[in-house]
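[job 4471] stage=fold_predict status=RUNNING
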Amino acid sequence: MALTESRNTYVTRFCLQAIRRIQKWWRRKLSIHSFKQQGPAVNCYSLSQNTTEVYSMEPIEKVPKLFFFSYADMKKTIWAFDVRSLSHIMAQGKQPENPYTREVFPPDSLQRLRERISYLRKRKYPVMYLQGESLSNEQEWNQRVLDIFMKLEALGYLAACSWFNRLTINEHKEFYKAMFQLWNWRLGLSPAEKEAIMPGHLKAATKLFRWLPDAIQTMIHNHRWWQKQSLALIQTFIERSQDKTKNALGALYVIMGLVHVSEEAAEAYPWIAETLDE
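[job 4471] inference complete, writing structure tokens
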């Protein structure tokens, strides 16, 4: 009996020690993983140069760890933010800058920020501030627009959500027409090039353009319906291909379409505006 109890005690002690070693290893691994994803201050907020969050002006310590992001600038100064604030800045269609110094984010830090936002969105976390316990219908729509325009930015084309949000129904119709013309003749794409950029663009189930431009002029729908059609078209251009370089071409075509209908977009991309006027 005593021998059995001794063995049980040994096994229990051994198991506990093994569990502690595993827990220690995982804590260290998670700490390194967080550092790579969220920057040098994620495990020690006090390393940050700024003590308040730029958008909420709350103490930086109050930023939920899930949304925390930090980076070191060229002078090795560490700055900390709430990802949701940085998403708001990126949605303005300008080169992302540190709001405290007005210095452009280093390329590697910007890439980490994109990856962090992508990580959160894949897990259905909102990257905008909630007005209440959950996103309202309007906020869910704004989040969807932001997701698409951040993908444009990730493909190399800065674009402000406001360019899209301010389009009238007639301008959405013009956008559809402009994209139709670019795709079918203005860009001079061969059938093989079209298929590479937009696989299955002629198939009934995945057809790129469902209507001729003249047909949509007489269609009567509300503003949100037209927004949904335009956003779906944009998403198709930048996501259909499995080749990122082809998606980048699709993003360029989307910017060309936006330049055609948005004065703000034309001001941001004057060289594209000049090309379209030729």
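[job 4471] summary: Residues 45-129 form one domain.
[job 4471] exit 0
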